[in-house]
Amino acid sequence: MEKHRLGFLSLSAIAVVLTALAFSDVSAEEKKKGEPKPPACNSLKDETGCTAREDCTWVAASIDAKTQKEKRKAYCRAKPKPKPKPKAKTEPKT
Asked: Taking the CA atoms of the chain, what radius of gyration do you get in angstroms?
């Protein structure tokens, strides 16, 4: 009786492993098909790379007027996404 349980348990484990391998291959192929995403705007360090993209803006360095020292380095950031237009509200008829 004990051998039947162990045999059934091992067959179940093998079936689970084979199923996982079969489905992991499919999902890996789907991931490969998609084109790679461009780098995030905040990872760009030069102005030319930032301004070349439409979804990024370059923020100039902040310089102190008295000491002429740089307070904050220049950086690239993502443009804000446009907000969806609100739907026109219709007043209820009375």
From this structure: 29
The two three-digit tokens of residue 89, written as one number:
């509200």
- Residue 13 CA from chain centroid, whole number: 35
Is 90 inside a domain boundary?
Answer: no
Is 38 or 54 the better-scoring residue by pLDDT? 54
CA distance 57 to 41: 8
Whether 58 and 76 have beta carbons less than 8 Å apart is answered as yes
Q: What is the pTM of this model?
A: 0.49
pLDDT single digits (tens) 80-90: 888 888 776 66
Q: Domain containing 27: what range?
A: 1-36
Q: How far apart are CA 45 and CA 58, in angstroms?
A: 10
3-state DSSP assignment of residue 76: strand
